[in-house]
């Protein structure tokens, strides 16, 4: 039996593999920071054997609240992922019990989204008649910050920015983008067509490709949490934000969506902009319209559960959507999807999943169109 | 050069093929009635030749108003269909000018939907965990009236009926059903999931398979316009309505949608139930909610253009959606899609199309859910 | 519970449906001849019920030897077909016992190949850069005899003719053509490329579309067994042969393959040309080379089992491949595939199948190339 | 305009990007050795601009003979690759002139095959009923040496080993494996079925995943040319060979194929085992049978052009197929495919390609079966 993790977003520390019924693991920290929660590894040679995997340092994860009710995802072929029912959080340890049906099985915190798939997504968009691709800048490790531009730049076309995966372990964010793009580039979809007529969309499917490949949870290659860098991005340490912020200054921004996953809450929700200085009644009305439209478009979305006011304290304007709301005075939201499941519509087999993230991305277009047609 | 039409829904009369630049054609009548407008035929041996096809009796079509602004659809491979720009209605004749790129080309009034595809659709639904199939009865020529039942029959599950293609030449209606079903049977779509939890859907994708195979525009094998048979269906002459009406009596009906195409109007619209005796303010409110939800879900849908009040006169309660509104007091609507294009969102290449019909079918689920959650 | 057959190639007579455990059926004769063996029907309303279907007149089938060891094919979705193990021939009756898992199930003599699929195949070939399509003539019922021409007509390009499905119930013959064509039109396959450089192929995927739609076993709409018409085809009664024979005279023929199914023998084999007058040692050598190449390319093919000499008696030169051998002095063969299984490589789940027929069609290209390179 | 290469197998050095018409590049060396020839990079921001890229140190490549007649491969979407006609070798420099149609374009020495695709291939095989996967050992950087085992281990089942991509830049070798596997795991293919009945196949699709990810041409992470390590593999420096050799000792070997690409020769050929000490007349006969069978199965393969005798000199038994021939006395061959094109069947658009490599892999099964049935 062996465990490997030398692949895109692979992350685990193996303490002991001696006993299949007591495999001792540790969550690995981000490559340059102390955040830890993401894991992704492959077990070989255990077909038909009853495995018990103990993540000893689960309580030291960035979000220990992420473990209760959480179930590990697993796959044999890397395409079909399912939840491992026998996952539990006990005495500060995460314990996963599973008997693999095949000799090679992958376990992960959530369904991975590799950089190769990212480049395939971008390449596919590039050849669409409705989009083109450019690079907003380079990451610390020399990867491109791919930006997919949909629609034509024209005076009447309003600038919409959508970014995802500032936190690289939140892979559901890029699955969301994939679903959104597949609909947005559909020649026959009327919502997509109307949006393409009224807006130009700047979409950054992966704000943090370095961190994603490293299997980081929250930070880039320099250990920076990008979603705390928006007030004063550093060209060296957080170039991802530095360059995207500059690009936004160049185009302006009339709607901003920042796509995330939340470790703890089993719901899909927005983190909204009420606390941002300068948020007006008109801001509230515009924000409410988009929120209502998403509610109508997707029952997976809800507004009852979400972050408590004051959660971000002093850091508020260092967050992307808050900074943008403040800077551009536009509707600016952070979308959060669960790592666990949507407790309002639970799915025992998959929990929250890549497929559901993609459907939500597609549904978001209805909300974007409602926004564009509202003013 | 030759023209053939001995295939599913093939229909044309060839008067003269002597001169490729003056091909003389006639629209063929339904097999047992005098309606004519549908055509579907194949031309062979004309690659690279400039064809001019004249439909001499276009003014005798059921809806001569269908010809202005109409453009013929064409395909080489029967999968990719495009509009022939040089289509015009002149002096009571429909004239189509086209230079085929290949030796075999199909022309049709609209993208066909064959009985084989119908059976494949039904077979696919049959193997879904969310659906099963039964037969409501048999047609005059011994075909089954396939009914796809989605969701479980349970006291709390409200009965929704959706029927399509009473008028067999309105193939967009079955494309619509295909799009609706693909979404409705999706395990990950939250709108579909919610609907499956709250309703049981009885879907008849093709009310008139006999007429469809014959290439009829409006009638069944006995020459009956099924959408004028709902008050007094005849077991012999209009068994399709007879059996479906009985099945509705057995299940009850809490929402009814009848899917159609309209030859003349270049818009997607509902024919609503205001004129039905017994239509109340509450009926109006419920109807309005569904209409508003579809407006929000699909920009291809609109409410400005539609039928004039009084259009159906004495026949009103012989129409499916009117009869159902009257009998069950539920929201009951006829959806009309264009044969031409949606003038609000024209597409020069395809006009209104199978793909757009499918997207509309998918969007209808949002409206159905709004209806189910409204009461 | 009900049985229907009003669809492409549907064929059965229902004597009694009263008792699911004793359903009484009869094989239906061809539309204008007394041959019977093909069946294809749909049972509805029998999910989970144990069915026993008795074909009372099985002993009156064209080939009663076809029943021992035969197993009925079945499908729920018309794409995935499987064999019904509990099929037996007893006291002159064919008995099929099956408990369907779904409410709609199809049973057939072999996996059907519909005219719609035929037109799709032809349409797909039409848009290949390596092929074009024309019509050799029309059938009695006005269908086109589609001919797919692969490769360019040029002096150095040798004319190869491949025809299939003279006997319409032998659907494996058109599946074979589909497999052959998919490889032959592949831009990357070197065998296909070499063939396209050296030959022009005239492929008639379905010699008998009228009979196929009728669900006939052996004859066209006029009741003629086309494979007994080659010496003196009749323009009215066997136009399919009449026109193809004329077309062969126009192009010449340097290799001829006629694709069939055999009801009785559980093997893939050729009916060869030794008995044809004028068959020389050189003919034998050329024939042997192609046969050896097919043996090497496909283990499903064998040469041990086949027809006894003298089988066709006086009729010999009325058969396609014999007449062609005689007329053109070229390698000319009839390929036979089993309705049952290949006893040398049995597959309990599928028996002989569409998939295996397609693989054999692909493998035949190796044999064709060996032939072309041999001289 | 910018150039990036921070992705799987990315490799280039950029000297100057100032002038699109005179972009100065250098081939990068393997990560721990001085071999260089592979390149793979992305150009952004050059849509519609006429690029001239000069690889200044092309003459210092491992195989300068690889450049005459070579044409660079390019792609916009990473799926469809084409050759850049305006590629030439001049004064020791490789010059590529191209005007990209899109804003993002990839150039490479040959169509890449990523580690992600590798893991997907292995995952797909894992879930086949005919195969399972294990790890033979780990690479220097902790990747698994995936071995796909096809067929059952049984006394009568002969052990066949197929390895690929010892030289990581020879991506055509893994495309070959993909084509071979797709056919080998096909339930309906008779050649695959016969092989699975008679042999157990041990397939290592990528012997050198570390080198592959690094974008190396010839060596592993420690700079070792694995195909010179077979006599005395080093557990630390060439664990890939060390472990596979041990695994072969455990299973025995009755047929060995090592899949490669050749930079210089524009042909598909075998490097055979005549020079191996102990090669007998019987060895020659068995080898000749397999070679003949491949000739029959694939016109892309030929025996006229190949390596000169004595090419490997003293190193002979350090090469995989030579060492295996010597050790196991079995048929043991190195297959070479071109980086350029097959001069016998040139394709102006693609040259030698992934698709053609896959077809060759599929055709190899005929040769393997001929081998298995020969003794
Ligand atoms: Ca986050
Ligand atoms: Ca209508
Ligand atoms: Ca036959
Ligand atoms: Ca090599």
From TrEMBL, chains A, B, C, D:
Cofactor(s) the protein needs: Zn(2+)
Catalytic residue positions: 336
Organism superkingdom: Bacteria
InterPro entries assigned: Cytosolic_carboxypeptidase, Pepdidase_M14_N, Peptidase_M14
SMART domains: Zn_pept
Signal peptide interval: none
Pfam family, one: Peptidase_M14
Peptidase M14 domain mapped to chain residues: 105-372
Family: Belongs to the peptidase M14 family.
Name of protein: Peptidase M14 domain-containing protein
Native organism: Aromatoleum toluolicum
């Amino acid at each position: 039996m062996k465990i490997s993790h030398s692949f895109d977003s692979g992350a685990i520390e193996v303490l002991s593999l001696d006993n299949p019924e007591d495999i001792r693991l540790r969550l690995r920290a981000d490559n340059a920071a102390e955040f830890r929660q993401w894991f992704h590894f492959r077990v070989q040679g255990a077909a038909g054997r009853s495995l018990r995997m103990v993540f000893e340092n689960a309580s030291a994860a960035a979000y220990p609240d992420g473990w209760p009710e959480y179930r590990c995802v697993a796959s044999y072929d890397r395409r079909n992922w399912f939840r491992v029912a026998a996952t539990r959080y006990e005495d500060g340890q995460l314990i996963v019990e599973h008997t693999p049906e095949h000799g090679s099985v992958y376990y992960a915190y959530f369904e991975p989204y590799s950089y190769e798939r990212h480049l395939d997504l971008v390449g596919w968009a590039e050849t669409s008649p409705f989009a083109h691709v450019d690079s907003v800048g380079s990451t610390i490790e020399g990867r491109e910050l791919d930006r997919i531009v949909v629609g034509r730049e024209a005076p009447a076309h309003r600038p919409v920015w959508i970014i995802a995966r500032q936190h690289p372990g939140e892979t559901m964010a890029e699955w969301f983008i994939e679903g959104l793009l597949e609909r947005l580039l559909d020649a026959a979809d009327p919502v997509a067509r109307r949006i393409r007529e009224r807006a130009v969309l700047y979409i950054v499917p992966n704000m943090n490709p370095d961190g994603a490949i490293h299997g980081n949870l929250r930070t880039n290659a320099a250990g920076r949490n990008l979603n705390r860098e928006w007030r004063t991005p550093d060209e060296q340490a957080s170039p991802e934000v530095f360059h995207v912020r500059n690009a936004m200054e160049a185009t302006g921004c009339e709607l901003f969506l920042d796509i995330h996953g939340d470790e703890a809450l089993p719901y899909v929700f927005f983190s909204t902009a009420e606390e941002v200085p300068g948020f007006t009644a008109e801001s509230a009305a515009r924000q409410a319209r988009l929120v209502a439209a998403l509610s109508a478009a997707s029952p997976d979305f809800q507004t009852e559960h979400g972050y408590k006011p004051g959660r971000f304290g002093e850091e508020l304007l260092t967050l992307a959507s808050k900074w943008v709301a403040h800077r551009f005075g536009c509707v600016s939201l952070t979308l959060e999807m669960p790592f666990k499941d949507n407790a309002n519509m639970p799915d025992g087999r998959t929990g929250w999943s890549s497929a559901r993230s993609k459907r939500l991305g597609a549904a978001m277009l209805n909300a974007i169109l409602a926004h564009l047609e509202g003013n």
